[in-house]
Structures are given as C-alpha cells and as structure tokens.
Write a structure and sequence with these properties.
Elements lengths: L3 H4 L8 H7 L44 E12 L2 E13 L4 E5 L6 H8 L8 E8 L2 E2 L5 H7 L4 E4 L3 H4 L6 H13 L3 H14 L16 H13 L5 E5 L7 H18 L2 E6 L2 H7 L2 E6 L2 E7 H7 L3 H8 L7 H5 L39 E4 L2 E3 L6 H10 L15
Parallel strand pairs: 3-8, 3-9, 6-7, 7-8
Antiparallel strand pairs: 1-2, 1-4, 4-5, 9-10, 10-12, 11-12
Helix pairs in contact: 6-7, 6-8, 7-8, 8-9, 10-11
Protein name: ABC transporter ATP-binding protein
Pfam family, one: oligo_HPY
Main location: membrane
C-alpha cells in the first residue's frame, strides 16, 4: 500500500503542489518559515487551454490572476426543487489583491466561498469556471483538488470552535496540513506550527492547549495560522470576525492586512459589515439574491454607493456621535426574496425605494458607473460616472433615496 504522503509527491520526490507552483516561480508566494519551494527547469508548461488551464495573459503583462471566477452559477436541489443560490458571478483577483464580498444572509456569498474549494454538498449543480492560478478547480480530479486545498487556497471559517477538533492539541492541528502536503515528519511539522503561531501572535506555550482552553480571538488566530501553514496563494475568510468583540475584531483584521502585505496573498473577505470590508479590502463587491449588484473601490462604494441596496447597507451603519442618526436610524424594509421564487426583472425592485415601472420587467446586469466601478441599476448612467471621474468631482455621500427623490 502506498503511503498517503507518497501519493502527493512527484517522481523527483517533491510535494506535488510545490512542483505545480514551480511553473510560475516568479508569482509564487514567499514560503513560511522552514518551507522551501523547489523549481524544475525541465518541467514543460502545457499548451494554452489544455487540461483546464487558462492561456497566458497577453498584452505585455506576465501576471496571471490568482483567482478568476467566470459566470459562476450554483443551484441546490432539495424537496422544493431547484434553488438558484448564485446566478452568474464573475470576479478576478491578482496576487496581493483584497476583495470584500458583502450582502445579507442568504445572498450567496458563503456559497461562493465554498465553491472556490469545492466544498459544496453532493448533488449541487455548478457551472462556469473557477480558475486558481489558471487551473479550473471544477475540472480537477479529487486527488489534485486535495493537493490544492490548504496549499493553493485555504479558508478561514466563521466558527473557529466548530472548525477545530476538540480532542487534539493546537500544534497538532496546525501541523496536519504540513504533514499531508509536504510529507515531513510530525515533530518537524509541529515545530513549524509553533513558528506560525508566533506569526499570528500566539505564545509558544499555547501549542499544547486544546481549543476550549483558548479565547474566541485566540481560536480565530489558530484558524489563520492553519490557513497560512502551506503558504497558499489565496485565503478566503468567511465571516472570520463576526463572532468576535470589537477589540479582538480589530486585532484580527490588522493581522490579516499585515499578512496579506508581507506574503503577497490574495484575500477574499466575506462579511455583512461594509465598514469592516471598506477598512480591510481594496475592492468591494455587494451581492443580492445570488448576483453582484455593485463592484468597485471599497471606500468609495461605502461612501457613495450607486445601487440602492448598497446604499441601504452603507446607511445601516450609524455615525458615532451623530445624534440625528441615533434618533432616526435607517434601515431597509422587507426581507430578501425567496431564491426559489425570485421576482421578475430586477430582484431588488419589491424593496427598492426608487423603483421605476421598468424595473419589474427589465433584467439588470452590471453597468459601468466608472471605469473601475459597476452597479446593476437602471438609474446608473455610464456617461455621468465617466464625466465625474474625468473632472475629479467628489462622489456623493451615501443617502438612502426615497420615492419622492425620483
């Protein structure tokens, strides 16, 4: 019987995932302490488009996107029939990019996160393409997918206590992906785990602790250390700070920003809190009913969203010290639509404060509000957005529109 670690090594004895990265050595991430990434000059690059791999970029740019999602559609099957959870999402992240994905519960953002590593339940229908460093995750064999998880891309889940094994010590759990993907001994892997703990601000003596002996913030740091264990190119943080208090949340966010900068990792951060995403990420994408309704520079989207739904999300966060906002909090009436019975036209039109007659009959896709900013609203005029960008005019502050403003 072949040992599990041996199956993950190539004929030269290197870990397969590192052999895969060696093809793109100029774009590889800096290895974690003690983690060597080898290269092989004799390894041949497959022809463009072969084996699910995207062709090399043209036009003088040698940087291949870390993550490329193309027309992703995800449909769950249940007792109620087919339920479309994601309806045509397209996103691109280059090395070092940070993207915030926001929206109400049930909008599909966590489904997108699970799809990136093919963690969706059996029977789920997934179409489109998810390219990780040019290779289609959806077309990979399970053996290759297993080699990519943790080493090519990793995920930080919302509930660290539910993600960690309660009967294993912390160092052993951090060391597990290192042993699996790099084939080194348990003792050396646990020594690496202690180094990773130091990088995320955990003392070495916590290596022998069990998850229940740690605070919520410490457990979340353990999850981040596990995500970094094999020097991935991409980290997906799914509501990683939602259950933490404000002080611990700030520490974890600061840690994520520091690690992204130092390691040049692409980060997708999922949250319902636009203020957190605007502070942490360069770009912000807002989802509603399985689709993107706005996508642009995070601080500008937060300060002057163009889509009424994104405006409502921004306006839901009061300004500290403003008595007017305290006495008159803003919210959004109604509930998100049932994904099994979506409204016609724009899915947001039953809740929209500035709805027009054509909104109920006209499907709306993302349209340019500016060169680097799109919103899926009939009121968005590309010409006005381009003119504002050309003249350097300030964007309007987020004001929740009313029907009387139309």
């Amino acid at each position: 019987m072949v040992h599990a670690a041996a199956r993950l090594r190539d004929p030269c004895g290197r870990p397969r995932v590192h052999a895969l990265r060696a093809r793109h050595g100029d774009r590889a991430q800096p290895p974690a302490a003690g983690c060597a990434v080898t290269t092989d000059a004799t390894e041949q690059e497959p022809a463009p488009g072969a084996d699910g791999r995207a062709p090399e970029p043209r036009g003088g740019s040698s940087v291949r996107p870390t993550l490329q999602i193309e027309d992703l559609r995800i449909t769950y099957r249940g007792s109620r029939g087919e339920i479309p959870a994601v309806r045509g999402i397209s996103l691109t992240l280059n090395p070092g990019d940070t993207l915030g994905l926001a929206g109400e519960s049930g909008c599909g953002k966590s489904t997108v996160a699970a799809a990136v590593l093919r963690l969706l339940p059996p029977g789920t229908e997934v179409t489109g393409r998810i390219l990780l460093d040019g290779e289609d995750i959806l077309a990979m064999s399970f053996g290759k997918l297993r080699a990519v998880r943790w080493a090519g891309a990793s995920i930080v889940f919302q509930g660290a206590m539910h993600s960690l094994n309660p009967v294993h010590r912390i160092a052993r759990q951090i060391a597990e992906p290192i042993v699996l993907h790099e084939g080194i001994g348990r003792e050396a892997a646990e020594a690496r785990a202690v180094e990773l703990m130091a990088q995320v601000g955990l003392p070495a003596w916590r290596a022998t602790s069990y998850p229940h002996e740690l605070s919520g913030g410490q457990r979340q740091r353990v999850m981040i250390a596990m995500a970094l264990a094999c020097s991935p190119q991409l980290i997906v943080a799914d509501e990683a700070t939602t259950a933490l208090d404000v002080m611990i949340q700030a520490q974890v966010l600061r840690l994520l920003k520091q690690l992204v900068t130092e390691r040049h990792i692409a980060l997708v951060m999922i949250s319902h809190d636009l203020s957190v995403l605007a502070d942490t990420c360069e770009r912000l994408a807002v989802m509603y009913a399985g689709r993107l309704v706005e996508h642009g520079p995070s601080r500008e989207v937060f300060a002057g969203a163009r889509h009424p739904y994104a405006q409502a999300l921004s306006a839901a966060f009061p300004t500290v010290g403003d008595p007017a906002e305290r006495r008159n909090p803003q919210g959004l009436a109604g509930d998100p639509p049932d994904p099994a019975d979506l409204p016609t036209g724009c899915s947001f039109h039953p809740r929209c404060p500035v709805v027009m007659d054509e909104c109920s009959t006209t499907p709306v896709t993302l349209r340019a509000a500016r060169d680097d900013w799109q919103a899926a609203c009939l009121r968005v005029e590309a010409t006005a957005g381009a003119a504002a960008a050309a003249t350097g005019e300030d964007l309007p502050a987020p004001t929740l529109l009313t029907k009387g403003d139309a």
